[in-house]
């Protein structure tokens, strides 16, 4: 394990080696030779499903979940979006360090829970974890994968999963607005469900909200510099504005090729104190994976060298 120094755009070099064996799970038969949006919500857990562009993701399965062979399930879409476990662990430990002096119970939200990779690590460090996702299948994966890492009875009081289409959190939308595309997508949170979840969140104040918002699929890497206005479901400024309704501290996992000038402008616009902004470069096996960007007073003056994995 090695940690590199933080500078203007640097941070953590998280490296891990895993040598677990392979155990196949019983899942529907599928076969894929290319990147195809049509079967993104199918469970992909058999080696024969991972061909063409998908092959590299199967080879990375133990980087994503060290306990993968104990029954982890993911949809095809989630293989593109799950944060490697060692980076998720570092993120949780960094946020834990930021609140090291707080005595009250700590509440954290993963705003885009996906398959639960970050949720699992937050449960190791915090008292109550909320996991939010637009996709019911993703929430089912999050719950099942959490049970591999934690007893079911413990999760009943510490893990709260909410179906939510963040689009409905936009206060500028007319009251009768309906996200037709999401409403017509099987398994996606409806407007009614989303509004119910937002009502729950309205009464919460989180110590920190983490999110790895959709980057637009693997094609993001084709951009020399990633335009943060391409994040989903909102541009970066709007996403931060929405999340800041529920917390004073936000941490986002963003593409490694993110536009740093956009980050700087957004920070200046939303945060009066530039010291509230930390940018850490994460790597796996020596290769850059993404930027962990933290905003808020909790991240001022924390010493990242004291993060213990």
UniProtKB/TrEMBL annotation:
Domain of life from the UniProt record: Eukaryota
GO MF annotations in UniProt: RNA cap trimethylguanosine synthase activity
Record-given protein name: Trimethylguanosine synthase
Similarity comment text for this entry: Belongs to the methyltransferase superfamily. Trimethylguanosine synthase family.
One CC-aspect GO term: nucleus
Recorded catalytic activity of this chain's protein: a 5'-end (N(2),N(7)-dimethyl 5'-triphosphoguanosine)-ribonucleoside in snoRNA + S-adenosyl-L-methionine = a 5'-end (N(2),N(2),N(7)-trimethyl 5'-triphosphoguanosine)-ribonucleoside in snoRNA + S-adenosyl-L-homocysteine + H(+); a 5'-end (N(2),N(7)-dimethyl 5'-triphosphoguanosine)-ribonucleoside in snRNA + S-adenosyl-L-methionine = a 5'-end (N(2),N(2),N(7)-trimethyl 5'-triphosphoguanosine)-ribonucleoside in snRNA + S-adenosyl-L-homocysteine + H(+); a 5'-end (N(7)-methyl 5'-triphosphoguanosine)-ribonucleoside in snoRNA + S-adenosyl-L-methionine = a 5'-end (N(2),N(7)-dimethyl 5'-triphosphoguanosine)-ribonucleoside in snoRNA + S-adenosyl-L-homocysteine + H(+); a 5'-end (N(7)-methyl 5'-triphosphoguanosine)-ribonucleoside in snRNA + S-adenosyl-L-methionine = a 5'-end (N(2),N(7)-dimethyl 5'-triphosphoguanosine)-ribonucleoside in snRNA + S-adenosyl-L-homocysteine + H(+)
Record organism: Pichia kudriavzevii (Yeast)
One Pfam family linked to the record: Methyltransf_15
Coiled coil: none
Record-annotated membrane-spanning stretches: none
PANTHER family recorded: S-ADENOSYLMETHIONINE-DEPENDENT METHYLTRANSFERASE RELATED (PTHR14741), TRIMETHYLGUANOSINE SYNTHASE (PTHR14741:SF32)
């Amino acid at each position: 394990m090695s940690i590199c120094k933080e500078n203007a755009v640097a941070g953590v070099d998280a490296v891990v080696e895993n040598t677990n064996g392979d155990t196949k799970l019983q899942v529907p038969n599928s076969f894929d030779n290319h990147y195809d949006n049509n079967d993104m919500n199918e469970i992909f857990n058999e080696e024969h499903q991972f061909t063409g562009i998908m092959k590299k993701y199967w080879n990375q399965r133990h980087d994503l979940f060290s306990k993968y062979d104990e029954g982890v399930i993911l949809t095809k879409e989630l293989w593109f979006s799950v944060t490697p476990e060692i980076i998720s662990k570092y993120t949780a430990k960094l946020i834990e360090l930021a609140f090291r002096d707080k005595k009250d119970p700590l509440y954290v939200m993963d705003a885009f829970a996906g398959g639960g990779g970050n949720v699992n690590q937050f449960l190791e460090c915090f008292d109550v974890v909320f996991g939010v996702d637009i996709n019911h299948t993703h929430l089912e994966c999050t719950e099942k994968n959490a049970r591999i890492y934690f007893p079911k009875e413990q999760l009943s009081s510490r893990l709260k999963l909410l179906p939510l289409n963040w689009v409905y959190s936009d206060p500028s939308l007319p009251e009768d607005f309906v996200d037709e595309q999401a409403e017509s997508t099987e398994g996606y949170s409806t407007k009614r469900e989303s509004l119910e979840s937002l009502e729950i969140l309205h009464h919460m104040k989180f110590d920190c909200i983490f999110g790895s918002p959709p980057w637009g699929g693997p094609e993001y890497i084709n951009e020399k510099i990633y335009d943060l206005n391409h994040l989903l479901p909102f541009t970066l400024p709007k996403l931060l504005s929405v999340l800041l309704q529920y917390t004073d501290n936000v941490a986002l996992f963003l593409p490694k090729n993110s536009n740093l000038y956009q980050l700087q402008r957004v920070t200046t616009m939303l945060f009066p104190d530039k010291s509230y902004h930390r940018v850490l470069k994460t790597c796996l096996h020596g290769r850059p994976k993404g930027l962990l960007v933290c905003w808020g007073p909790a991240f001022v003056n924390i010493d990242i060298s004291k993060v213990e994995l």
